[in-house]
Amino acid sequence: xxxxxxYRCRRPLTDDIVSKLEKxxxxxxxxxxxxxxxxxxxxxxxxxKTLYCQGPFGIIARGHYTMIELVQVPSLPGLLFxxxxxLIRTPxxxxxAFVSVNAMLDEISIPARPLIEYIRADLVLHFRCNxxxxxxxxxxxxxxxxxxxxxxxxxxxxxxxxxxVIINFYDKALQMGNPPGDVLRLEIQLHKPKxxxxxxxxxxxxxxxxxxxxxxxxxxxxxxxxxxxPVAVKVNFNLLIAECEAVGFHMSNGLTVMxxxxxxxxxxxxxxxxxxxxxxxPTVANINWEELLPLHSLPEDLPEIDQ
Length: 307
Known about the structure:
By secondary structure, this protein is of the alpha+beta class. The chain folds into 2 domains: 111 residues, no CATH class; 187 residues, no CATH class. Helices cover 32% and strands 25% of the residues. An 11-stranded antiparallel β-sheet has the order 2-3-4-5-6-1-7-11-10-9-8. The longest helix has 16 residues. About 6% of the residues have low confidence.
């Protein structure tokens, strides 16, 4: 359910680590850690930065001199299971992952304020499906949190990239270096302040706790925002276009129907047509997010990829 997280904290390095850094000229490597204090950049009016990391699915921490102020966990499932093809599936998984994060940080620092506020959290799930069909069905989908145009990665993935919200659809097997498969990953990256707004953060207070079921509820709500109602204008023509887009049909010039429509009409006409068909395409492709995402539990079939 949760994958990448970034959060602010205050964790001074232990006296032992500071001593090793002083003896090593500002660098220390040992016990899986690489710790470096960067040269001063004061002449550029920037603070001294510190970088710490451990392992391929470890953590990165940044701060000012010997104080850790920002922790970045690239993959909570990777840290817990050794692969990011798996998912955080239960509240117990989420707790165990953070126990691992804190245990790693406790090796080198003191938890003065272990977690002040989250500044990024990625909500993710996997769906067993015809990945190409799902990607084609959402190529023209719009989301109220993203104003930019959708990026289409040659049919292998989609990315809706807003300032504080990024939504990605892609073939998880392909992303992990395997042949194309039947597991779609739908991830929603939330960055501060949108992260706090989604989770109901009190104004003026940072989001310092993410509940597992609140994460699922918000994920479900955000995915449902794709579900625009079809507009019954020239419905036969719209339905024909929706059918073509839902199956990823390309015309003889190599472009999809909507790509041809965009190239041969003014921008407003194209946007009007897209608005009319965007709710039809998932319906034509038999994609019903409300059925795929139950109200009181995670989906029964949550596929994972071990390697």
